[in-house]
Design brief:
The chain is 76% helix and 0% strand. It contains 19 helices and no strands. The longest helix is centred in the N-terminal third of the chain and has 33 residues.
Length: 510
């Protein structure tokens, strides 16, 4: 080799060292696997058969009929099988196989960080998607020549499918991080297959609807809605990424702050978009909005936010309170920064504080939005307040009881606390149903008997029950008692943060 050609090769070699090692490893394994080769050639064969037999069936009518839409949908079915089922399932199995083949221990002792491992496997999935796209693209172009579909619709469908496939792969990777126990892997694999098949069916239904009613690209509402969807897809992608990274992080390290920040970002993003819709609703394709639309939007936001904080609180509010030495060494030197970051730090009491702060923000936003829009619907306000009270009550009760159980039983783990919290919710829902069998309690004029059942009581609040004020007072009183039970632990966590500044040595190493 001449000296003139040597430098470019050496630069390429040096550039290749910047690639993620997991990406290189996973790409070599996946591209040489029988699954990838079989899927690739099956895609080409199916697409070729659709082209040949489709043209034969259409006959001479192919010259003047608009049959490109039908051909495109058939090609899309072939592509959807690969990118919505095969690729995400391969990503899911990639993490489980690391544990089955006992190679995870080797990865965990290398210098690779959990984030690099997740990014490497996700990049490998993206590479496979691009290869499948390259195989189907010529056939998509052939569909365009047959009339009936435009290039913009094809491009938007393919871009949306690419994003959807990446999200499914990320969700599959996140689910794979929970497969620590072998007996859980069977149920997780079955559940993942069912979920991916449902996603495959949903994608076909959406694309079929898009082909029947093409995009209105000249409408500002279309681009606003697309922007809203894209922002939430990105936000949830960050959340799932943080969950996956947290699951692969050492138990003694900070596995919580990233997840809490991402969840808070999703909440405030939803609040911002709803506020923008209330202020500039005409840009979203809504010429006028009435009080019913405002109340419905606020109720949907409150319900989704309560579900998110309930699920996240089930994980964060049941953790053990003490900070590990590794986390304490990573704290900031400045007291004000440590205090502001307290709700984001690991620990059950800090997690409960994080949840009730966001629930309070949700209630304040709903009340302020109703006042600003002059939609003072008491039923909606009571429903939102009831939602916040129930989430704060049961999470706080589970956290307090779990804290007491840890003092009594030495080996009471966070998983036990989560099961205990779910049992408390189930008990609260079942107890009124049991009392209903007694004639003395079988009356609709005494809804306080159902106060522990969130589903029944929230239905009464949403329908504007005449006893709504009494129910809200009972819920607020019970929630206040539960919050007071957790106040000593919350104050103790603040004391733990203020007494443990970062060590100079650890700070200087950064």
């Amino acid at each position: 080799m001449s000296s003139a050609t040597a430098p470019p090769l050496s630069r390429i070699d040096r550039a290749s060292e910047w690639l993620n090692p997991i990406l290189v490893k996973e790409s070599r394994q996946s591209l040489k696997s029988r699954q990838f080769v079989a899927t690739f050639f099956l895609m080409l064969t199916a697409s070729w058969l659709i082209s040949v037999f489709g043209v034969v069936v259409e006959g001479a009518g192919a010259e003047y009929r608009e049959i490109g839409r039908t051909f495109f949908f058939n090609y899309y079915i072939v592509l959807a099988v690969a990118v919505f089922v095969v690729v995400p399932f391969s990503a899911f199995r990639s993490l489980l196989s690391e544990r089955d083949l006992h190679t995870w221990e080797v990865l965990s002792i290398t210098t690779l960080k959990p984030r690099e491992i997740v990014w490497g496997k996700l990049s490998s999935a993206l590479l496979q998607i691009f290869i499948y796209y390259s195989a189907i693209t010529p056939f998509m172009a052939f569909a365009k020549l047959l009339k009936g579909i435009d290039v913009v619709s094809i491009a938007l469908v393919l871009v949306a499918s690419l994003v959807g496939s990446m999200m499914l792969s990320l969700i599959a990777l996140t689910a794979g991080t929970f497969g620590n126990q072998r007996y859980w892997q069977i149920f997780m694999t079955l559940g993942m297959l069912i979920a991916l098949l449902n996603a495959f069916g949903a994608s076909l239904a959406l694309v079929n609807g898009v082909l029947e009613a093409p995009f209105e690209l000249d409408s500002a509402a279309f681009w606003w809605v697309a922007g809203v969807i894209a922002s939430f897809v990105a936000a949830y992608g960050i959340l799932f990424l943080q969950i996956a990274v947290g699951q692969l992080t050492f138990d003694a390290d900070n596995r919580t702050t990233g997840v809490r920040l991402a969840a808070a970002g999703i909440f405030w993003l939803a609040v911002a978009w709803l506020a923008a819709w209330l202020q500039w609703h005409s840009y979203f394709g809504t010429s006028t909005i009435g009080s019913n639309e405002i109340n419905e939007a606020l109720s949907i936001l409150a319900t989704l936010a309560a579900i998110q904080w309930g699920l996240l609180g089930l994980i964060t509010a049941t953790e053990t309170d003490p900070l590990s030495r590794r986390v304490r060494r990573g704290q900031s030197r400045f007291l004000i920064v440590r205090l502001l970051r307290t709700p984001l730090m690991p620990g059950g009491a800090r997690g409960y504080l994080y949840i009730i702060l966001h629930l309070a923000a949700l209630a304040i936003f709903v009340v302020a939005a109703m006042s600003f829009s002059f939609s003072n619907n008491e039923a909606t306000c009571n429903y939102v307040l009831g939602l916040c009270c129930y989430v704060a009550f049961y999470l706080g009760l589970g956290s307090a009881v779990a804290r007491l159980a840890r003092r009594v039983f030495g080996d009471f783990r966070p998983a036990h606390a989560r099961v205990l919290t779910l049992l408390l919710v189930a008990l609260g829902s079942i107890l009124p149903q049991t009392l209903y069998f007694f004639e003395a309690f079988r009356t609709a004029s005494r809804p306080q008997y159902w106060i522990t059942d969130p589903f029944h009581t929230l239905g009464n609040l949403a329908s504007g029950n005449t006893h709504s004020t009494m129910l809200i007072m009972l819920l607020a009183g019970g929630t206040a008692v539960v919050v007071l039970l957790n106040i000593p632990s919350i104050l103790a966590t603040f004391g733990e943060v203020t007494r443990n500044p970062a060590s100079p040595d650890a700070f200087e190493k950064k």
